Task: inverse folding
């Protein structure tokens, strides 16, 4: 029931991928740029966030092996999550490169995908679902500017709980990644609970 109610409040859904390191934490602490991308000990993480009344919070997280295809991880989220939200779903152009994913998003009831699709100089977009994504993106360019919200949330999670774990186990590293987002949501709920207590206390005092 709570999930059904939450779906009615969601204004935006935004998706993005990131990674959390493990095992070789010393190397991860000083590698940069291209060399950092070559490190194989990291958990690929796909994050779907919701925006409700200006507050952003994660509603689904999928983890995979290093350099897993973010589009496949996102499709797993769509498959596992009973999304009944109505509104915009925002993602970068990587998601617009997948015809099957484009079809699923375009046909999703109540959702308006805002995902850029790039045409090459010599190679035009022919798939009808990717063309529809292009049209929707052009109609909702201003909405796309809110994609920063998912990047901002991922940054907050990493700053609060770290971006790497000192374990050699991939499976354990996955658990730690999921726990980070669970802790983040728990902190949000706790803050909301405290605000509600203050509100009712003030209302009782005034009464």
Result:
């Amino acid at each position: 029931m709570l999930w059904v109610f939450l779906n009615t409040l969601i204004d935006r859904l935004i998706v993005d991928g990131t990674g959390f390191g493990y095992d070789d934490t010393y190397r991860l602490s000083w590698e940069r740029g291209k060399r950092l991308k070559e490190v194989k000990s990291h958990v690929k993480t796909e994050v779907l966030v919701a925006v409700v009344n200006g507050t952003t919070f994660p509603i689904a997280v999928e983890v995979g092996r290093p350099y897993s295809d973010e589009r496949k991880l996102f499709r797993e989220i769509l498959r596992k999550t009973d999304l009944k939200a109505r509104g915009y779903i925002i993602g970068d152009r990587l998601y617009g490169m997948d015809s099957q994913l484009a079809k699923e998003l375009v046909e999703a009831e109540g959702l308006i995908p805002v995902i850029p699709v790039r045409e090459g100089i010599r190679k035009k977009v022919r798939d009808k679902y990717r063309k529809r994504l292009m049209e929707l993106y052009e109609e909702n360019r201003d909405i796309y500017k809110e994609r920063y919200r998912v990047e901002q949330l991922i940054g907050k999670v990493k700053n609060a709980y770290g971006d790497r774990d000192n374990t050699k186990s991939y499976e354990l590293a996955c658990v730690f990644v999921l726990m980070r987002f669970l802790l983040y949501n728990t902190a949000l709920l706790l803050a909301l609970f405290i605000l509600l207590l203050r509100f009712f206390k003030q209302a009782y005092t005034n009464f």
Residues 1-5 have pLDDT under 50 and may be disordered. The first strand starts at residue 12 and ends at 22. The longest helix spans residues 170-206.
